[in-house]
Please model this.
Amino acid sequence: MRPYRELTRGELLALKDELEAKYREFQGRNLKLDMSRGKPSKAQLDLSMEMMDVLHSGVDLTCEEGVDCRNYGVLDGIKEAKELLGAISEVNPENIIIYGNSSLNVMYDTVSRAMTHGVMGGTPWCKLDKVKFLCPVPGYDRHFAITEFFGIEMINVPMTPTGPDMDIVEKLVAEDEAIKGIWCVPKYSNPQGISYSDETVRRFAALKPAAKDFRIYWDNAYSVHHLYDDDQDIVLEILEECAKAGNPDMVYKFTSTSKITFPGSGIAAIATSKNNIEEIKKQLTIQTIGHDKVNQLRHVRFFKNLDGVKEHMKKHADILRPKFETVLDILEKELGGLEIGSWTKPKGGYFISFDSMDGCAKAIVAKAKDAGVVMTGAGATYPYGKDPHDSNIRIAPSFPEPDELALATELFVLCVKLVSVEKMLGDM
Amino acid sequence: MRPYRELTRGELLALKDELEAKYREFQGRNLKLDMSRGKPSKAQLDLSMEMMDVLHSGVDLTCEEGVDCRNYGVLDGIKEAKELLGAISEVNPENIIIYGNSSLNVMYDTVSRAMTHGVMGGTPWCKLDKVKFLCPVPGYDRHFAITEFFGIEMINVPMTPTGPDMDIVEKLVAEDEAIKGIWCVPKYSNPQGISYSDETVRRFAALKPAAKDFRIYWDNAYSVHHLYDDDQDIVLEILEECAKAGNPDMVYKFTSTSKITFPGSGIAAIATSKNNIEEIKKQLTIQTIGHDKVNQLRHVRFFKNLDGVKEHMKKHADILRPKFETVLDILEKELGGLEIGSWTKPKGGYFISFDSMDGCAKAIVAKAKDAGVVMTGAGATYPYGKDPHDSNIRIAPSFPEPDELALATELFVLCVKLVSVEKMLGDM
Model:
């Protein structure tokens, strides 16, 4: 296909008329579709329904260590849950604390604790004039929302195909003691689906931060969330790399079963060094008597072990893969060669990242919305909602039914074309 | 029985020999009993086992408002859970936010949010030189632990048979802008089992605090936890009283199902004014995508409504009541008239509060421990673990089996007698 930039003004005007007619057609169909959030579909949720059967009134709810899971106690999680989440996180169970239903909440708590109590003897961040976080962009809006909520200044770091630009990361953390953390989604990143290369992970582990209380906030959200059986990304285990590099305490690794069983009714965990674990427990023992052990037991008895999780994730992949392929096929078929947008082709995770021409993302998302398709808000993938190029759009193919998804994507590419033509005409 | 203080030195010495012989007998029995925490017993936990059957793979997990409880969403709890917890808390569902499994965690979060973000536009407490809380004593050690963890200065306020000494509370909050809160367990208080009188509640509602961000932290832990069917304490509803008194935003009311179904696997809630709800939601939306809706649904479908809860609580009472009576009978039979201790006779809740002669509590708890019976640490019922009279001991009769409980109480009264005699001999 001919790139749009090679079209004459006359050709663009004619194209605009044609696209607008198609757009009006879409508007007339009263669509109500949602590609905005990384929500599993009903079919995916159905995969875990048998988990609801493993615990019932005829089952003994005593865990391996002999504790009655129905009663108070066990601050950091039952042994078998630590083993399961440890296996998912690729760390030893002794490096795990099991939390409640939300890894986002664990990240919030981790930042909140640093604000009020500091990190391992450091000054509480609320007593400092300035606290900064590095934010690889595009990234996850809910990470950025946490740091914004606490008044932490966020600094954009560009993503590359192998992870965050480590030249910049190394330089900034070495220079500036106010930089206390960096948000990372190392595997099948949100939204690009990029997995950090071995070199990137090793450079992370070898960072020499000016701030002793600098930590890497490693959101291992898509650890076992592959789309393909035979083509999976592998990311080096960061705790081990940090230990090897002499920075054993530098990372907090977060995980949850939200996109394995039921989002909001799963279990979450932090994996980190024993020193960090001890420090976190000092807070945890004040905060709660313990998390939901019955739900921990339910998950372990359903999956049994990591193999059980992997088998289960294949079923998720069987549902998700065709959806990703549907979106990618339509993007390629409709936009390939037009040079008005580029997109990622992830091998796992929940998102496809789309980059329009500069200055077009907000208008594309608005146009899609006006025709009944909700996308993630343009700008959401950047701190403060400010995409400096107004070009990145996150596509979440998981939730819609397959036929709806195709329709929504058709509308999306139409909006991309229409806004691009309008932009080019305006720039002429 | 003759009061010990009327005994001669010779009589005391003879008594001491006799008590020591009995104590050695106990030591020889290698007991391992626990009366330290307010934990439900196995029989109580068994009461809720049918809750494990209400949700299974054949059941639709859609809530009344049409949301699939298995997926993300619904920040503040499903409608039917708000109705149920609202009924338990005696407030309207619109005044409720449903949280995770622990009301302690909700209290921690509430204080933590005030530290980092202030209360309704007030200065974040972490930016203030001094923040103080009033602590009715004796009280709940985990409340005091939260305020201590955040460096909040705690001021003791004596309890009376009708609640905290309101003359002192009124005076202090009116005078001192640094006083930002007071910890209350208004019904069947921990540890005394005292319920606040109507006058006390009305005086709370009518407080005129110097600090605009002063809040009453009203831990409604034992709302439906009566021991008797025909003799129940009723506490005025504090949100309504605050509204009537022109202080609608002055109270946070906490509740949970921890001692209704399974501690640690229940649901917790905050009840407060709509203004406070709106403010809390600003944090909540950053902190989590939502709490465990499947567990919310499980609880609602098990109980159906408040009547279901009340029926269920009668079964708890049938198990707890004989235990309280066992302890009270032994206390009366063994210590009545000796004037070496006094104790409360609660009509609900989880504790009996015992006051020894001044300076004896630590020694009594230590002696009981040496013979294999663990009590709540002496001092625990006071901020910083410092009981100025070293006299208060919390007795938790719920967890031990009935025969163990009698044995543990027999040992306890023996320790009270022995330590009292030793004390009197030492003072002579």
User: Anything to note?
Assistant: Chain B touches chain A through 55 residues (CB under 8 Å). The CA atoms of residues 39 and 399 of chain B lie 5 Å apart. The first strand of chain B starts at residue 33 and ends at 35. Chain B is about 40% helix and 15% strand.
